[in-house]
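Figure 3 (text version): structure tokens given as input.
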């Protein structure tokens, strides 16, 4: 990657040095208002100077940034869009989109664990108007038992912000489920409605008494339409997909990775709301570990006084919630307009293979709990070899 212009920018901003060529001087002066230097690093601030993104100056720095934002815990091995969103939160270089796409498509763990894209079932959208109003609750499991004795995951999803809570369980008894539910309600606040399936861990006298005491409506999805709460289904799929990319060969350490996976989900921008759940719940952007190490805000940015800032914050929150509500409604309308063709079980999107590329031959997988089981002869092949064998 050509970093000469960034080196020239740094020399100008830090030391007042300009290149000898008139055209290069004009270029550096034109670019300079969007950059600044701090602690020996060059940062991209944009014209408004409201944020700092560290400028990547070498191929090795780029590799580290991509690994932190995609491979490391919290990155969740997300797709191109999710990884790019995380990269641009703290880093800048001219070919981000192209490099992220190549990085994600060449990720071996993603190739082995990402499911084949299928046509989504017709879901029944649930109308919500504000954060922490309606909560979907579900279970994942049984999973391979961990060293701590955990075999299940209790998941909760706020249907407005898409904020996810996931807690490991040793059993799925009503007592254990209700204890975690009470803890989370007293931590985040009460909701108007909780949606679950008809499982005994959710539909029982203990939970009925809790819902009555807290004045929470309990809505139970029909056995004939378990996909009513599609958000729970997506939450569970996202958690299992991410966990598969971090667990050991026995898949019995998933509870060690669960918190980081959930953090990655909550700090990723959602397609339906166009914001991260973290931002919608706390009304500030998360401090991501990868970005904090290279992008210190320091004293260059003025911190607003809490008392003076509260009125503008309330106004911003009101406008934001209205925008998110419109985004959710548009996403639901778009999804409801794509009914599944019963004769068409799945869509196989063929990658644009080129001679010399590497690909994985997986066979037909079967899933069991958290795991994806492939035939024992998983091999990487050269496409040129495959084409030669084909004749």
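Below: residues designed for each position.
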């Amino acid at each position: 990657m050509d970093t000469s212009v960034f080196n020239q920018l740094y020399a100008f901003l830090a030391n007042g040095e300009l290149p000898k060529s008139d055209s290069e001087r004009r270029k550096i002066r034109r670019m300079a208002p969007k950059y600044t230097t701090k602690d020996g690093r060059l940062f991209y601030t944009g014209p408004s100077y409201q944020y700092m993104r560290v400028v990547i100056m070498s191929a090795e720095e780029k590799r580290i940034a991509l690994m932190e934002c995609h491979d490391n815990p919290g990155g969740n091995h997300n797709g191109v869009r999710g990884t790019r969103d995380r990269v641009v939160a703290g880093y800048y270089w001219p070919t981000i989109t192209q490099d992220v796409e190549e990085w994600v498509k060449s990720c071996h763990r993603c190739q082995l664990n990402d499911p084949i894209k299928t046509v989504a079932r017709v879901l029944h959208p649930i109308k919500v108007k504000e954060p922490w109003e309606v909560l979907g609750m579900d279970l994942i499991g049984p999973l391979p038992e961990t060293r701590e004795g955990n075999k299940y995951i209790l998941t909760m999803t706020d249907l407005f912000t898409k904020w996810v809570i996931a807690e490991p369980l040793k059993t799925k008894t009503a007592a254990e489920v209700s204890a975690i539910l009470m803890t989370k309600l007293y931590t985040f606040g009460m909701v108007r409605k909780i949606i679950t399936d008809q499982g005994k861990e959710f539909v029982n006298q203990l939970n009925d008494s809790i819902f009555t005491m807290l004045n929470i409506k309990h809505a139970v999805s029909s056995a004939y339409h378990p996909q009513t709460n599609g958000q729970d289904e997506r939450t569970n799929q996202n958690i299992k997909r991410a966990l598969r990319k971090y667990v050991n060969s026995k898949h019995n350490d998933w509870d060690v990775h669960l918190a980081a996976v959930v953090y990655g989900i909550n700090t990723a921008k959602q397609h339906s709301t166009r914001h991260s759940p973290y931002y919608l719940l706390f009304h500030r952007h998360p401090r991501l570990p990868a970005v904090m190490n290279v992008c210190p805000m320091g004293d260059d940015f003025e911190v607003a006084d809490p008392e003076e800032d509260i009125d503008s914050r309330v106004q911003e929150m009101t406008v934001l919630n209205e925008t998110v509500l419109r985004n959710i409604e548009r996403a639901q309308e778009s999804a409801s307009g794509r009914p599944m063709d019963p004769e068409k079980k799945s869509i196989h999107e063929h990658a644009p293979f080129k001679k010399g590329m590497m690909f994985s031959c997986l066979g037909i997988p079967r899933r069991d709990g958290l795991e994806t089981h492939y035939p024992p002869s998983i091999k990487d092949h050269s496409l040129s070899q495959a084409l030669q064998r084909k004749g």
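The longest helix spans residues 306-336.
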